[in-house]
Design a protein that fits this description.
By secondary structure, the protein is α/β, with parallel strands linked by helices. The strands form 8 sheets. It has a 9-stranded parallel sheet with strand order 1-2-3-4-5-6-7-8-9.
């Protein structure tokens, strides 16, 4: 009897199981045959398919059940509708799309990391309703942000927007990382409430005062390209030395002249002070734990003796400075990498080569720059020197090649100009693009008298471009783009001034002061970028000695097709010793074994005791003794060349 009952129970169970299976079949069939998850944007759907490795067929909830991370960057996605079905997502990368509405994300209650860089998101209220820990909103064109309230957010990146105020951070108590670089921020006061902030990145803003952040537990910061003049608040920062995965301390390109507050931060291991107008490095001697030091493009440092105390230093960038004694670097036992000039400037192979390069830079500056020159005069002198003393060579790309050997491609031309402008304190950057021939090309963007201009020394070199030698001197954005694609970045200011527009059709010219004398047929015009004036008489003559323009207190004159120049200025420039006999109005010049004698008003002269008849006698003009340039120069073993088109005389003693 008991056995029968057991048997009947088994039969009943089997029947019930079969009925249950039968009832479930329609449900399973519906799941397989239904519409599944629908995405409004096919590009988003494709990104999901790639992630789950299902190129075709219906996407079911089971397909995405294990999907915790999705990279849908740079897919041209516009709509996120359908993404709310990816309920297990922890990390979502949507960088580089065309998204403006993020409301479908609100249902992703497990999402922790959201990357929305380079989209069109303006409404940030989603941060207040989601439990996000990390958000990246780089490059969304955001102008204002309402107050944010999130107890979970620890990292916020909103760089490259148009934000002017940080008031929105007051409701982010757990924020440890904040990146607001490339905005328009001035005031850091709202940051006082961020008592957990450890990493602060705010380069390319308008910050002046660091006082509001001096009591925060910041370990690392980047404040490059701001308007900071004093770093006294850094003296009081107590946490900069504490361990942090990112060890970044960047104050580069600020008008900071005094770095003494750094003395207290003895545990700092890395710091960037490039582009600061500093001369005294003594405060750095206290930073005995420094391993990496950037001092590029200050142009003002000559003494590096304080650095000998940095016995742990492994990396040192001294680019574009005129260091007097590089041998001190031999006292740094851990130094593994020394940057004397960066890649584009050229890397001298040893300290001896660097000293040669430094001496060359000093020689060039002495030869072409005077203290009374304006920015424009200095720019033109540098431009003219590079163009006249450099020949194009495709395979030589550094300023070392250009300035030491006289050959370079566009990189060498542009970086040579940059170095010399930097040393004169003239603001400039390298600009880049693609030339008409499809080859990458570089030139300079220069700030003169408050306006920005494009300056292309390569294309102005008439050995390359047989058009006008001034076609690319201080031109506008519009002009520079007529024969090239210009990779303009947001860091490049607009170049719109047409101050020099009339100059760009000039074949040749001679710079005197801020005037360029040009010869246009019968008309001689004097031009300074703001006006033109007709001038009478001979064009002024440009005289170069070993490539450097010569400046005399009396303008050289042309008589009988011979150029007369001031006696003492020429003789001394050529290295001769001059004796003057006032009783006979005779000058005697001696250099090595050569002796010249020349008398005012007489065509008879002598060279090493032999009489010489001059084509043009020496003259007294405005109280200055003027002598024939060619006779004097060649008698003292120099070579003389005349360029009638540019009215230029080149004297070479080498």
């Amino acid at each position: 009897m008991n056995r029968k009952l057991v048997k009947q129970e088994d039969i009943v169970k089997k029947i019930l199981f079969l009925i249950l299976c039968f009832l479930l079949v329609p449900t399973l069939s519906f799941a397989e045959g239904g519409e599944g998850i629908q995405f409004a944007d096919s590009n988003l759907e494709q990104a999901v398919r790639e992630a789950i490795q299902k190129p075709s067929g219906i996407i079911t909830p089971n397909d995405v059940a294990g999907l915790q991370s999705l990279d849908a960057s740079n897919k041209k996605i516009k709509s996120l509708d359908g993404i709310q079905s990816l309920r297990q997502l922890l990390s979502l990368n949507l960088n580089g799309n065309e998204i403006s509405d993020v409301s479908p994300l609100l249902e992703l209650d497990r999402l922790q990391a959201l990357f929305l860089a380079d989209n069109k998101v303006r409404d940030l209220s989603f941060i207040n309703t989601m439990s996000l820990k990390r958000v990246d909103l780089t490059g969304n064109g955001i102008v204002t942000i309402p107050e944010l309230n999130s107890p979970t957010l620890t990292s916020l990146i909103i760089q490259n927007n148009k934000i002017t105020s940080l008031d929105f951070v007051s409701g982010l108590p757990e924020l440890t990382e904040l990146n607001v670089s490339d905005n328009q921020i001035r005031d850091l006061t709202p940051l006082k409430k961020l008592t957990n902030l450890r990493l602060f990145l705010a380069g390319f803003n308008q910050i002046q005062d660091l006082t509001p952040i001096q009591d925060l537990p910041i370990r690392s910061f980047s404040l490059h390209h701001n308007q900071i003049t004093s770093i006294e608040p850094i003296r009081h920062m107590k946490h900069l030395h504490e361990f942090e995965e990112i060890k970044l301390h960047d104050l580069s390109f600020n008008p900071i002249r005094d770095i003494s507050p750094l003395e207290t931060q003895t545990q700092i291991e890395k710091i960037n002070l490039s582009g600061l107008p500093i001369t005294d490095l003594s405060p750095l001697s206290k930073l005995v734990n420094l391993r990496k030091l950037e001092l590029d493009r200050t142009g003002t440092i000559t003494d590096i003796s304080p650095l000998v105390h940095l016995q742990k230093l492994e990396y040192l960038n001294l680019g574009n400075n005129l260091i007097k004694n590089m041998n001190l670097l031999n006292e740094l036992p851990q130094l593994k990498e020394l940057i004397i000039w960066d890649e584009h400037y050229g890397r001298p192979f040893n300290i001896h080569m660097f000293e040669q390069f430094r001496n060359k830079l000093e020689e060039i500056q002495r030869g072409i720059i005077r203290d009374d020159m304006s920015e424009l005069e200095k720019e033109f002198a540098i431009f003219q020197y590079i163009v006249k003393n450099t020949s194009y060579s495709l395979h030589h790309r550094t300023a070392y090649d250009a300035l030491m050997n006289g050959v370079a491609n566009c990189d060498g031309y542009a970086t040579s100009v940059q170095i010399l402008l930097d040393l004169q304190g003239i603001e400039n950057e390298i600009a880049a693009g693609i030339a008409a021939n499809g080859i990458a090309h570089g030139w300079n963007l220069v700030k003169i008298d408050g306006q920005y201009y494009h300056l292309d020394a390569t294309y102005s070199d008439r050995n390359i471009n047989f058009e006008t030698s001034f076609s690319y001197f201080n031109v506008t954005d519009k002009q520079i783009q007529q024969d090239r694609e210009y990779f303009k970045t947001r860091y490049h200011e607009d170049a719109t001034s047409e101050r020099f527009k009339d100059l760009h059709s000039i074949t040749v010219g001679v710079m005197k002061g801020e005037w360029i004398y040009i010869d246009l047929g019968d008309e001689k015009i004097k031009y300074d970028g703001t006006q033109k004036q007709s001038v009478q008489g001979e064009m002024p003559i440009d005289i170069l000695l070993n490539g450097y323009p010569q400046h005399y207190d009396q303008t050289p004159v042309m008589m009988n097709n011979r150029t007369l120049v001031p006696l003492r200025g020429l003789f001394e420039a050529l290295g001769a010793v001059v004796e003057w006999d006032p009783t006979t109005n005779t000058a005697k010049a001696t250099k090595d074994s050569d002796v010249i004698s020349i008398t005012i008003g007489s065509r008879q002269a002598s060279h090493n005791g032999k009489d010489v008849i001059l084509d043009q006698e020496a003259k007294m003009i405005n109280g200055r003794t003027m002598v024939p340039l060619r006779f004097v120069s060649e008698s003292l073993r120099a070579t003389v060349n005349w360029n009638g088109e540019s009215k230029t005389i080149s004297i070479d003693t080498k």
